[in-house]
Structure formats: C-alpha cells, structure tokens
Amino acid sequence: MPVRRPARPLTIGILAVPGVQMLDVAGPLDVFAEANAQSGAEVYRTSVISGVSGPLSASSGLRILADMVFETERCSSFDTLLVAGAPHMRETASDPAMIDWIRRSAPACRRFGSVCSGALLLAETGLLEGRRVTTHWSVAATLERRFPEITVEIDALHVRDGRVRTAAGVTAGLDLALALVEEDLGSEVAKRVAAQLVMFFKRPGGQLQFSRRGESSVSGRSALQEVQRWVLANPAQDARTGTLARRAGLSPRHFVRLFQHEIGQTPAAWVEAVRVDIARRMLEDGDRPKQVAAACGFSNVDTFRRVFQRHAGISPAEYRRRYETPGFG
C-alpha cells in the first residue's frame, strides 16, 4: 500500500513548562520520529518550545534545551501545537505571557491540544470552552471544577473534538501522537510505527483501569475518621449511611452533610470507591471476582461487575487478567 505523504513537512510544536513531565515531550517526539523513519522521508518536523533560552529542567531532573523560546516571532505558527503537562501544574500559577502566547498561536494552527495536565494550562486560554477533552485522571476533577464549561471525558486515553486533541497523560501522549500519525499518513504507517515502538495500535480500555482515585485514606474530623477506618477494616459489613451515622453518633442528615463538606463526596460514594479500591488489590493478588465481591460487601457478583466497570472501565475478570501479580515458587 503506498504511503500517504503531505506536500511539505508538517511542523509539530510541543510547549514545555519548567518541571515538565519528560515523557509528555519525549513520547510524542519519538512517535513522530518513527513516522519519519517508516515513511522514508521527513514527514514531520518537530520543535520543543519553552519560555527560557537556557536549559529547562524536567520533573525527573533531566535538562532539556528547547529549540525555540515562545516569545520569538518564528514560533508563531505550527501545523500542530501540543501543550505538555507537569506534575506540579495543578498547584503552580501559570505564566501570563505563556497563556497569552498560546491564546494567540493555537488558533493559527491546523490543530492544537495538550498532553496530561497540560489541559489545565490550555484551558486557561479559553480555547477549550464548549469542547470535549481528557486529561490525567488525577487532575480531571480540578479541570472540571475550574472550567465547568469544558466537558471532561475522564476515561478516554485521548479525545478528538474539532481542531482540539487532548491526551490523558504520560504514556497516553504516545497514543495521541500515534492517532495524529494515523490521521495524517494512514493506518498502515501508524501500525508500523506502533510495531516498531512495541506499543498498542489501539490500546484496550481507558485510563480508569490505571486510576488510583479511590486509594484508601482517612480525613476529616475524628468522628468521621473513626467511621472511615471501620469501613476500611470491614469492607464486607453493612456500610449504609444510616449505619455509619449511628457509629458516628450523628443523625443521618447531619452525618451526610458533614461528610460531604469535609470529605468532598457522599458517604455512599466514598464507601463504593473504597470497596472498589480494595477489590483492585484483591484481584491483583489473584482472587477471583466472586470471592472479591463477597469480601468487599457487594450483594452479588453482577452488582460488583457493574460497579467495578464504572470505576475502572473494564470488568473485574479482565482487570485480574491484566494486572495479577505473578506468584513465586
């Protein structure tokens, strides 16, 4: 099958902030470089952009020397512009000059988007209003809260909405870059790239299978912490709201109001997330779904399957198959 090639090299710009996640930059770059190799020509011409002229430190400590500084005139137009994420993005104030540059530059590109928590930075420009996007599961709630006009598809590995392309995070940046290669050069080249990089052409499942959003922890005032510790120690026991309220010595209505205020979710939602978290660990240890359902307080295995699928994006049996820790001896 003949390789589809653009009339000229497609320029790819990846914007890196201080403390950038290295794989958010290097992953897509390797995919585009491999697409060049598989095409036998320079189909993509890539550039890393930053706000400093000297070395930029990534979150791993590795230093990057960017190709361009975003304030220079020659950075003004790319075929594709991607904003890379950083582990600290949620807590760090954004550079107003960088936001302004993205706001002016992205509309001039054929397509633009983000990798991982870079969606938080891109959202500040207003360019994502009314769009469907994804981001790393750990910052999805922050993105939804800060920018309610954006629809966040939390389980998606990458999302295409008009000219906008967003990736869930870290290795999902490779999935996004591969999808862009498929858009530009066709599925045959993209499949060859995936084979060479030993990655899925279409990765099964979404990002929630990797999520640890419900990782067991306790918080809030002491009465609530006591209740949470009891649930963690007794996941199979009756944990209905009324039961938990009695353990806390509160009326059900006051207990729900207090729990939601201090923990950020209803008691029922917290209990469900904790049970799924415990179920994940049991499945990873090799326990079968039927055993896990009973041990984690689900009324039957069908209910467990539905709840687990909603949280993890895949069935308990499939999760166990993928993530079971091999035994020794």
From TrEMBL:
Residues 225-322 form the HTH araC/xylS-type domain. Pfam families: DJ-1_PfpI (PF01965), HTH_18 (PF12833). InterPro entries: Class_I_gatase-like, DJ-1/PfpI, Homeodomain-like_sf, HTH_AraC, INH-QAR. Transmembrane segments: none annotated. It comes from the Bacteria. Keywords: Transcription, Transcription regulation. The keyword Ribonucleoprotein does not apply. This is GlxA family transcriptional regulator.
